[in-house]
Amino acid sequence: MTTPPKIHRPDELTFEVVDLIGAVVARYHAEYEEAAAEHTLTGAQARLLSLLSLEPLPMRKLAQRLRCEPSNVTGIVDRLESRGLVERRPDPADRRVKLAAATEEGRQVARSLRESLRFAREPLAGLSEDERLALRDLLRRMLAD
Amino acid sequence: MTTPPKIHRPDELTFEVVDLIGAVVARYHAEYEEAAAEHTLTGAQARLLSLLSLEPLPMRKLAQRLRCEPSNVTGIVDRLESRGLVERRPDPADRRVKLAAATEEGRQVARSLRESLRFAREPLAGLSEDERLALRDLLRRMLAD
DNA sequence: TATTGTTATACTCTATAACTATA
DNA sequence: TATAGTTATAGAGTATAACAATA
C-alpha cells in the first residue's frame, strides 16, 4: 500500500464557490434578460442603454465597456435610436467621433429596467442586513483586483 | 431644519449588492466565453457540454436546464455532435425521446474547460480560506430559495 | 389528443474585413 | 499614416410556428 499522493489541486472549496457563483450568474442573467424583455429590449440593448443612462459615450468607448467589436455597437445603437431611446451627437472636439447619449425617454426606461430587476428582491431578500453587508464586503474584495 | 424623512426605499444596500453581483456576473461571463473560445466552443455549446458531462439528458430536459426553447437545442447538439463531442442515443423507455450524451472526448473537453476557467484563480485567490467559507455560505443561502 | 424532437423562418448578436471621413 | 465609425458578410443563438413520429 502506498500513501495517497499529496496533490495540490486548485482547492476543493474554491471550486465549490466557483460553482455557486456560476449558479448566481445563471440566475442573474436569466432575470436580467427577462426584465429587458418586459421593456421590449434585448439583453445587449438593455446593457448599452444602462451605460448611456449614466453618461454619453463615444461609440468606441461603448464597445470597450461592452467587451465587443465596435461594428456591433453600430447596430445596437441603430435599433435603440430608431425607438427614440438613444441619439447620436457630434463631438465638438473631434469630428470623427459620435457621442451616443440616452434621451429622456431612454433614461426613464433604464430606471424602470433597474427597478424591475427581480434579482434585488427574491434571492437577496433572504439575507439579513448584516449578511448583505458581509456579502457586499466580500464581493468588493473579490473585484478589487 | 426638518428631520430627514424616513423613506423606506427598496434598500440602498441591496441595490449596492445587486450592482456588485452585476459586476461579478459580467466578469464571470466574459471569462467563461474566453475559456470556451480556447476550446473552439461558443458559450452555449460549453454550457450544454458541461451539463452532459454529468449525465445524459433528453433534448427536452436540456432545453429546460438551459432556459431556452427546445428547437435551439437541436442546432447546438448538431454542432457538438458533428465534432464528436456529443452523441444522440435512443431512449429504450420512450421512442419519441432522444438522449444526448457526452462522448469520452466530450467529457475530456468539459473537464479541461472547467479547469481553464480563470475565474477560480484571479478573483477568488484574493480571499482567505475563512472568507471563501463565508462567501460560500452566503451564496448557498441566497440560492436556497 | 398530447408530447418529443425537428424543420423553417426571421431577428439579433457576434467577429472579421474593407470602406469613409476625419485627424 | 492612423483613428472613429460604418458597411458588408457570415456564423451562431434565439423564439415562434408548423410538422412527423410516437405515446
UniProtKB/TrEMBL annotation, chains A, B:
Span of domain HTH marR-type: 14-144
Alphabetic keyword roster: DNA-binding, Transcription, Transcription regulation
Residue runs in coiled coils: none
Database matches in SUPFAM superfamilies: Winged helix' DNA-binding domain
Signal peptide: none
PROSITE patterns in the cross-refs: HTH_MARR_1, HTH_MARR_2
Lineage: Bacteria, Bacillati, Actinomycetota, Actinomycetes, Kitasatosporales
Pfam families (UniProt xref): MarR
Species in which this protein is naturally found: Streptomyces nigra
Family annotation (PANTHER family): MARR FAMILY REGULATORY PROTEIN, TRANSCRIPTIONAL REGULATOR, MARR FAMILY
Classification via InterPro entries: HTH_MarR-typ, MarR/SlyA-like, Tscrpt_reg_MarR-type_CS, WH-like_DNA-bd_sf, WH_DNA-bd_sf
Protein name: MarR family transcriptional regulator
